[in-house]
Design brief:
Layout lengths: L1 E2 L5 E2 L2 H10 L1 E4 L5 H17 L11 E5 L6 E6 L7 H7 L2 H11 L3 E9 L26 E6 L10 E4 L26 E3 L7 E5 L4 E3 L10 E8 L7 H19 L8
Antiparallel strand pairs: 1-2, 3-10, 4-5, 5-6, 6-12, 7-10, 7-12, 8-9, 8-11
Length: 262
Amino acid sequence: MTMTVDGIEKLSNEQLSEYKTNGFLVLRNVFDADEMRSLLAESNRLLTECCELISPSNLRCRYMDHCETGESLFEVFDPVNDISPVCKRFCFDPRILSAVESLCGEPACLFKEKLIFKPPGALGYQLHQDIPSTWEGFPRTFLTVLIPIDASSVENGCTEVFSGYHGNFLSTDASNYMLPDECVDVKRCTPLILNPGDIAVFHGLTPHRSAPNRSNQMRRVFYVSFNALSDGGDQRDFHYGEFREFMREHRQSISSEPVYFK
């Protein structure tokens, strides 16, 4: 990275080229130890002081099965900024915005954010692309910044990205968001092995997946997603309105339990 006059590092031409070619980019030591300790403490606070929010009926929360026992484990707050000023501050950190705007080639808008806890034993996610092919109006400039709170490793189920596929949809089947592993070349797989302080950025069409957390500790990651200003402007509130309705219909299709957002 190159240093600008105002003290905020900008991406180099080599980094921009790497992202354009691969669909992802890893940046090391973006945040210092004190900053990461504050995000770690905040994730612990949310689990304790906001425990009344954690419920399968709350549309803010998502759960994942244990890879061996099938037990349902709380895994995600989505969204999180409205209950966490610390998370919100990271979303708008000038270093994050500078990197994102360099990749977009213009100012960017926060689209969504989610805090993933991934407790021990939690299953990972099958191969997928983040931009839904049939979601009308979903920004095609969508990209995500991955901020690891705990060190991400193969053992604890780090995100794995596949390079060079971000120019197209790998499937237009609206009934199947997840993709078969056969649609990508395993040789293009890069596990995002990161330490707290590092970040990774990947395009919304970059295929990615994660394996189960087979360690004995959580693998917490803060995901922050953006779109280019010209690609719909500030859509966060509108997106979450649509997203909650989608989740409400989905939950009610599989259970008669009432749902709410809190």
